[in-house]
Amino acid sequence: MLSEANSVSLTKTYTRAHKLLKSIQNNQQILHDKVIENVRSQSYLNIMNYHVANHDFDSVIHYQNLIKNSSHDLSVLGKTEMHLAKIYAKKSDYYKSLDSFYKAIDFFERNDDVESQIESYIAVGMFYRKINSIDLSTEIDSILMNKYLFKSKDDYYNKRIYINHASHLASLGLEKQSIGVLQNINPNSLKSNVVKKYYYKELFEMFSITNQLDSARKYIHKAYANPEFKLPCDNANKTIGLAFLAFKAQDYPTTLMHLDKVKESEFFTRVSDFTKLKMFKVEYLSHKTLGNYQKSLKAYEDYFKVRNSLKSFHINARASILNFKLNYDEKILELKEINRVSDLFLQQRKKFYILYTFLITFSVLAFIFFIFHSKRKKERLQLFYEYEKIKAVTDYKNRFIENLSHEISTPITIIIGYLRLIANNPMEYSKVIKYTNLAKRSTENIANSLTNFLTLSKLEKEHVNHKTLSLPLGKFIEDCVLSFQGVAEIKNIALYYKSNINVSEDLEYDYDSLKKIINNLVSNAIKYTPPQKSIYFTAELLEKEIYITVKDEGIGIDKKEQEFIFDRFYQSKQNQIYGGFGIGLSLVNELISKLKGSISLDSEKGIGSIFKVNLPMTLKNYKSYLKDEKFVFKNITTETQIEVEDPEDAPSILVVDDNIEIINYINELLSPKFNCTFAFDGVEALGKILELHFDVILCDLRIPILNGYDLKAQLNKHERTRDIPYLLMTTSIKDFAEGKQNKLGIKDYLVKPFKDTELLTRINILIEKEQYQKQLQSLDKSAVNYSGAYADLMKKVNTIVIENINDKDFSVNKLAKLCGYSHKQFSQIIKEKSGLSPVKLVLEIRLLMAYDLIINNTYQSINEVIFAVGLNSRSYFNKVFTNRFGVKPGKLVKKIKVEDL
Prior knowledge:
Helix content: 55-70%
Mean pLDDT: 77
Strand content: 5-15%
Shape: elongated
Number of helices: 34
Structural class: alpha/beta
Number of strands: 13
Low-confidence stretches: 1-8, 575-581, 771-789
Strand order of the largest sheet: 6-7-5-4-2-8
Radius of gyration: 50 Å
Largest sheet: 6 strands, mixed
């Protein structure tokens, strides 16, 4: 059919390209070189395209040379070769045309331009089909379908490949398969009007060949239906298609009418020889059928002229292709030979370089070995320091998690405890209100701790806008300090306050940050200050700043650790066991920095600490903020004690914990049945134990000065206090699983949060066992040291019971027989030495062993534990275990699993 170059569009593009070239010529000084190169190259390409359409060979060559001299863009050079291929094809120089096509492909491959490679191969495939070279068309189709299908991210190019595949199938005579491929493509997804027109024309050709004339007629109309892309030659091309359809329908007059119309058209000269050959054949057959023999003869003569011309075309085209392929293959062989010679040369040089390299390498290695040896020590030291640093950070994080567990478990214990007390006393309104308020206060404590942590994280990550309020500064600071009055009084610490600030004068400031600073410093001082000592708080307002000083007579901080005390999660090593987040002082430091102030520390171990804070303030009338009173310390605390009920003839218990809230809760729980005494740190507790008599000691592991382990170690030094039942409270089973309890003789422990029934049961068991003369076998199976006439017998009893622990048929008679006594005599001896009957003694050892197996997660199920300790009833085991330890076996297993997470 006719050439479809859009002459109008090309003319406009040509004009615009020249205008752009002129513009960049006039603005070279202000434009970037890269911009000039890109615009110039694209303009040259557009002009080349115009000249290709107009068969202006010399102009195409001219602009191709300009692009080669001005651009290094591989994509631009590839497109230049594509234009050259088209102009050579029009000049029937098929050898050069193919050479340019493959050069273009080479440029696009080097530039990794997949879409342009696809366009090039499609153009080559169309060329091969035009000259009826089926083998070469098959080769191109195979390359596109196997190598490039789905390689492009743009699905449009996959559809282009399928359209080419359909055209190839048609060239093989597989028109139905071709139609199937084309109909699977949505024409609306083809973004190029040229491609869409080609798609419709291909369908027209396929339906024509298969004599589906209605479908063919529909697609010939669609191919030329777009008015926005109407070319001058479209009417002529459409008329030719309609002529062929009329001939297929044996409507010969209509066929001749359409053919005459085309021959009279000004575009007839642009009709390709392939189309002319078909036109003249149709005209010849139509005239012959209608009896117009003279016109039929004329058409037949025209047909043979074109046919002879095409024979010459095919011969030239095939010869050019063959010549190109031979030269192409020769070049490949030549390149292979060059590579072979180069490889031989390289192998010879390689041998020389290997020897030369060996000598150089030997010298270099000797030098490197010396350098490596000298640096190795340095690297080892560096790795060691890095390891220690990472280990320290990991320890800080692990300690933070442990302390977080402690800080949260204690309030949760209190909250759960008060809620159970409310449930047990639902009709006593006053108690319900009291317990509700206490539970609420513990909830607020958790929220405040977590808020401080989140505030510190936010301060470190981003800038925080501080909110200011207008409040009486002096009154605000005084209220903050007074809020600690009750805690200080209960711990028997004297809290002194001194300020020169007027309590009624308002000042605009960030009071939220100021409150956090004061609360953290004062609470820290109270926590680490023992009873009978003092804390001094000073607030002094100067003309442009305020000084806040918190001095305590606590345990102090070692000089080596003072430089790290404001680091996040850092805790002084002697204080790590006491719990806390380790963020209090870090938060204080961050808040003070945001307020553009400063903080310093002066501390001496065993003497106390002084924290000095300096915060800048803007005061309009400085003197109006000062009060007239003397600037002296006043004690804001009075001596007080926790109110406890002392039942007559009740057992006495010492409760040791630094948390006031849990002290109050335990007092509420135990005071109706026990005489309770309280201590807030290890030193105070030790003094009271040496001075007074206690039946049970209930101690938290993480208490100041002397922790729970250290306190027990001190008690073990005194014969009178060594055997006092000692119940340890902790937030983690792992603390008790470390093995210290065996060496120290700690009888039992509780994991927070615990239930009130669990605490009461453990205490009752310990008090009941206090009457026993000696203790049972410790959990590690080492014998207890007994004294007296039957010491050897008691050791033997322990050994025999443990050896037969998993024998459910093991009886007291058998035990007495193995020990060499009658049943009656044996029972009397055991009762006298342990306070238990032989049956209860054996059961006690079985239960202790079961408890040990559960906390160490030795078995997968409770049934296995029951079997291991020689019991055979699950219900009986649950009952006696719960009575002994105050917790059901199943719940103990769940608690251990939570600890392991």
